[in-house]
Structures are given as structure tokens and as C-alpha cells.
Specification:
It contains 18 helices and 31 strands. By secondary structure, the protein is an alpha/beta fold. Helix 6 packs across helix 7, helix 12 crosses helix 17 and helix 15 crosses helix 16. About 2% of the residues have low confidence. The structure holds FE2/S2 (inorganic) cluster.
Amino acid sequence: MTDPLVLFMPSGKRGRFPVGTPVLDAARSLGVYVESVCGGRATCGRCQIVVQEGSFAKHKIVSSNDHISAKGPKEERYERVRGLAEGRRLSCSATIQGDLVIDVPQDTVINAQVVRKSAIDRIIERNPAVQLCYVEVDEPDMHKPLGDLDRLKVMLDKDWGWDNLLVSQYLIPQVQGILRKGNWGVTAAIHRDLEASRPNIIALWPGLHNEAYGIACDIGSTTIAMHLVSLLSGRIVASSGMQNPQIRFGEDLMSRVSYVMMNPEGREQMTRAVRDAVTELTRKVCAEGGVDPGNVLDAVIVGNPIMHHLFLGIDPTELGQAPFALAVSGSVHTWASDLGLGINTGARIYMLPCIAGHVGADAAGATLSEGPHRQDRMMLLVDVGTNAEIVLGNRNRIVAASSPTGPAFEGAEISSGQRAAPGAIERVRIDPATLEPRFKIIGSDLWSDEPGFDADAERLGITGICGSAIIEVVAEMFLAGIISEDGVVDGSLAARTHRIRQTGRTYSYLLHAGKQEISVTQNDVRAIQLAKSALYAGIKLLMEKLGVDHVDTIRLAGAFGSFIDPKYAMVLGLIPDCDLSEVKAVGNAAGTGALMALLNRDYRREIEATVRRIDKIETALEPRFQQHFVNAMALPNKVDSFPHLAA
Ligand code: FES
């Protein structure tokens, strides 16, 4: 008779196991990650699974509760003391009696609730780099003079299969006290990322310790965003963000590099500023989640190359000039205590690899999140900031570049531009017949021509135009015929409407005439044209490198990508022609990639391998860049067509 067939969901991994095999052992042998802290003593409750009943024709498995053993005394005791939800079983106690479909609960579902504006729902299967292991150590024996730490290692090998363990030095003086306090029961946190590296005991607690957390952090030049996650359940406990305090040294990346070049203390000041901010944000998410920072054992950090270098204490000067040399491009493994982040002394930090001198670990995170390298179709991934990071490809080939878009898309260099904040205009429509605008401001649900808007405007003020609305208003001006294909504001319209005004030798469009006048000037239109041309030219270069004349799907990452309306991006020719239903905003994809790498170390290997095979294009050195740039100055483009806009 053949052994029962067991299928684990959602991974779909399956195998045959003899009757009587503990479900936990079956999962492990198939590489299905099921948490276990107590080592099968039925005390930690971390190994819970659900038996799916019914016929699974697709998998030819008929599963029922008769196919799993009844609860034994240990599991019953756990249920009595700690409670077990309906349908849940302890996989360390339950044994296989027949064919089974087992559901391994996955709490980490990234969706719109936890990753703002993310269009992608997904489940991250866990396989973290840190594992908690409870053992009961033999008491000392005069006749067997093996040290306390050595006997602890023996038990970690015997019960958990950890051999050749390293021990963090700071723990050695504490071992005896911890073992005695726990009455010889101790929980060890074992860190192992790379298969080739030796596993390391990074923390110890007396008795059964059931909490282990990690942080996933995206250090942006403007904003630092962080998730605090339980490594045992995968649940996101808290998410928060704060402004990058380095802004006081310079708004954009190049001004921060200049600050380092011009001030002997500059690098140190900025490193301290960003580390202090990450420490403060960690404290904040821990407080929000009710988590002791001492239980944070792992951290994954992404950032653009300059943020990456400054966080590590590396002088970024080389990144400010050709050949834009990175001090380190591969992934970085280091100790949190070396960077002083206020988490467990033994905690580790993993930084994703950088793709190139201008395409950083944040782009690697976004790549991991969106997965162009897993696609058959051609995917364009764009993270727009003052420097746009662009990745294009599919499973066969993948290329990346950055393009100097400047700060116009963020509202800088625009006469009425501002950051997204209450009172900023965020949506604009212009009537092509009357040329009259309607708009919405952040903080109000109403359009400016709807009843009640004036009260909101009084309360919030109408303070300026945020980045996404600048795209929208310029596109609407183009669609209404206020600006030509060359981006020139049509002065002849001044005879038709008071909204067109002459300023010197050019004209501007009056969007709002209130306490604070808000206009779109000819210079504003030019700034947007320059920014969008730089972005489009970078994309075109990559398309040429791959020899493709279209892309199948587009992902717009970052805060800017989240708020921009894809239709307007295409009207202006920021992005190439594509079916609009295939253009998606994916929020902070870099942060999502960091979260994936935190919860599953296999993703670290995946992105390291992917980054190694990405072809890097240096836009500044490509002779064709200038030609693409000039063509892209027209709206939407002098040579390229946009058939999906017509549709
Ligand atoms: Fe701890 Fe099953 S492994 S309860």
C-alpha cells in the first residue's frame, strides 16, 4: 500500500509520508516553513495548521479529519490551557493517518491596508533568517566537566539539528545566569541567512520565549518608512514613516553629496542623522505595536545608493561623479549594534544589493516586489523621485537605468508647487469649451464647484499644487488646447478668457484666484517637459537595449506613482504607450521588497541573483539619450505614437 499523500497550501508542496509521521516533520522535509519554538513539546502553539476537508480532485487528494490523528494528551493540555481555535491543530502533535490537504496559516498578506495604495495582494510564505529554539539543558555534572554553553550547544544540535553554532560574544558572560534563571530551560534565537555561513546564537532568554520581530525599512531621501513584523506569525504589527532629517543638509541627493564634499564633518553628521531617525522610527513602531525593542532580532533595509552609503557610514562622494562608483554593490550583512539602532544587541541587519551607482537597493526592493524577472511579459517598473529609477525586462533579460528627472514632479521648481499636504491641489479638470477649471484639494472630498467646498477651502486653505496635480493640470491644459504640442501657452486665448494672462513675453494659466493666486506659468510647463523628457528618454534607451518597441505592463512605484493618474502620465508622454488597464500604481514597492526579504531569506538569494544579471545602462554616457530627450519634449512625443490614448 502506498503511503498517504500530503499537500501543503498555499505553497502547493506535496509528498508521501508513512502513517504516524508528525505533520510538522512532513512539512519540514518538504521545505514548508511551519514555525516551532518549543521543539514539539506542544507548549508554544506556533506550529498550528488547519486540515482542509473535502475532495481535492485537482490534486487527487481526499482529505478528512479522519486522516489525521485525534488530539493526544499534550495537545489537549495545550487546548485546555491556551485555547485552540476551531479547526486548528498543533502540527507537532498531530500525525498523518491518511491523505491530507493542510493549510498553513499565513498572516502576512500585503494589501491596501498595510501598504498604502498597493495594488497587489499577496501572501509571503515565511522562512525568516531568525528562528527561536527552546531546549532543556542537562544540569552540570562534576564527572562531565562540559561547560554550560557547550551543553546548551549539544541540546540545540540534538533537538534542532543546529551544529557548528557560533555564539555572539556579548552572550557568553550571560549564559550561566540565563540557564539558572530558566531552571535549565532556555530559548535561543538562531540566525542563519546564507546556507554557507555558520548559524549564530544571537540572543538567549530563560525559559520559553515566544516573541521575535523584525523591521523592514525603506530609507528614502525625503521619507523613511518602516514596518514592524512578527517573525513568528508574519503579522505586520505596526507601520509608520517620518521625514528624513537629512533634508536639513540638502533637499535633493546631489546637494547632500555636495554637503559632504564641502564639510569635513558632513558625512558623519548625515550618517548620525539617518541612524538616529531609523532608531526613533523603530522606537515608534515598537511603542505602537506594544513590542519590546529587545525582541527585534532582524532588520532589512533598502535605500537609494546615497542613502544606503550614508546609513552604512560610507562617504558618498564617488557617487556624485562619473563613473559613479559604489563602495559596495552586493548585499550587506552586519550587526545592528554596530549601527546603534536600539534593538536587541545580537540583532542582524541585511541590506539588499545596489543595482548601479544611481540605481540602488530601493530599486532592487521594488524589483523583488514586482518581479519583472518572474514575468514572461515585458514589464516596465518606474520609481519616480528626483532621480527616476527604471527597470525593464522579463524572465529572459532585464536592464536598469536612472534618469535625472529633477524635483519638478515633487512640486519643486514649479511656481505654485508644494509637497502633498492638506490644502494642496491634487486633482484638476479643465472644461475645453470654457477653459474654466475645477479642482480638488487634499483634505476635502469635494470638487471646487460643489456645494460645501468653500467651507473646506476656508478651513484648509488652498496653498499650492502637489506633484501629481502638476502632471494633471499640464495634461488638462494640453487636452483643452491651452498649450500646444510644443508646450507653448497659447497667448491668443487671452482674448477669450481672463484665465490666460501675459507675464513678460510668455503667458500663464490662472488656476485659482483667491487670497493666494495659483497659476501655471510657461516656466512650469517647461519644467514638467524637461522632467518627463528625461524619464521617457531613459525608458526609451532601455527599450532599445532590449530591442522592444512596446511594453506589456507598467508599474509606477513610490509616492508619486501612487497618486499620478496613468492616463495623464500617458497624455504627457511620461511613460510609453501601454494598455491603460496594465498601468498600475504599486505604492512603496521598495518597502514591500524589504518586507519580503525580511520574512523569507529565499527572497534575499532571489534578488541577489537577479541583480547580478541586470544589465546596467548609464544614461549620461549613451549618445542616443539626447535624441530621445529632444523627441520627448513634445506632447506627448515627436516621433512615438500612443494608440492606447486614442482608444
Ligand atoms: Fe510548539 Fe508545536 S512546536 S506547540
